[in-house]
Amino acid sequence: MAKYEKQFLMEMLENLWTVRKFEECAGDSSLKGEIMGNVHVCTGQEGGVVGAEMALNEGDYITASHRGHGHCVMKSGDVNHTMAELFGRETGFCHGRGGSMHVTKAESGLLGANGIVGGGISLATGSALASKLLDDKSVTVAFFGDGASNQGCFHECLNMAAMWDLPVIFFVENNGYAVSTPITYSSNTPSLADRAAAYGIEGIEVNGTDVLAVYECVKEAADKVRNGSGPVLIDCKLYKFTGHFVGDPAAYLPEEYKKEALAQDPVIKFRNTLIADGSLTEEEADLIEQKASDKISKAREFALASPLPQAADVGMYNYSSDNERCVAR
Q1: Strands (E), 124-261
Q2: Per-residue pLDDT tens for 8-46?
């Protein structure tokens, strides 16, 4: 790790633990009935989330899927108001109206998590078009699952982005399963990165359980895209530790998949690597994990202490043909 400063490596490990602890808290709170509706966590996929987002600039943009908590935590740097949104509280980024699948912080560059499969792909393409027209040197990254790569919007947007050399990275969080359907049943392409060739753009495959490999891959891709070389498709191979949603027993996941997922845990793997090469001591690594745990515990307390939206305000923050009802604070 000699090429990286210790502070950077410590920050990366803290981000990994923060996303992990956040998702563990979200899952536990969902099972307790504190969070309403289905909750989809990215536990096991933190290497892709943290590695990719640490490679971006502050002024860059992203879109996320229904599994977008970690992306909001990373892009906003704010666990309190992200957690409050999941809990449906007024202090949430969307005032409790978005919830788990639509947690969003546009001011920070997160243009929306999306409950529609592949819904963020076209939003990211539009954002990249705006950046090109404005020449603001921003990059947009569309995060989506392998199942979304079979949606029509995926192919339409890759074609459009390639034709217009848009500054966008299409980032597949490829855990191998679209709900319960293995990718081998739904795609005849050994690597989803191979699909880039059909549009004349670069396709890259990266190991999503190696956070530094993801960071370096996205950093290089973002530099190219930012300088006008056109879009890039990244197939990030990773694992999920849970079923499609919290409470899903995931009986469809083979035992060998589950064993390999735990063996390739991106958080533990990075922690152990830092200790093994002398970048951190075990005590330092433990303190970083504890710091993340404390931060998430306080975020849960903040969410539970925050007020619920009032029934009288049901029309607020909504678009309406009646402009008087479209109220914003």
Answers
A1: 140-145, 168-174, 177-178, 181-182, 202-207, 232-237
A2: 999 999 999 999 999 999 999 999 999 999 999 999 999
